[in-house]
Amino acid sequence: LWGWNLAAGGLAAAALTAVCIAWVSGRRRVAEDTAIGVVFTGMFAAGVLLMSRTRSYRDLSHMLFGNVLGVTTQDLY
Fold this sequence. Notes:
Blueprint: H1 6-25, H2 32-53, H3 60-65, H4 73-76
Helix pairs in contact: 1-2
């Protein structure tokens, strides 16, 4: 988004997500599956917020949601 490598940003977001899930599920009142749902929803919301704030020539919604037109016949096999 700021000219950084997308793979490095994805790796950092995955590590942050794992740490947040471990922290939230470490509390006695929250089950692990609930922590996963809450953190994934929060990270998705953060992605939508970043996507709406960034002026880019890339269509970032394809990175967030995927692009069905990018699937080839080889991918289906």
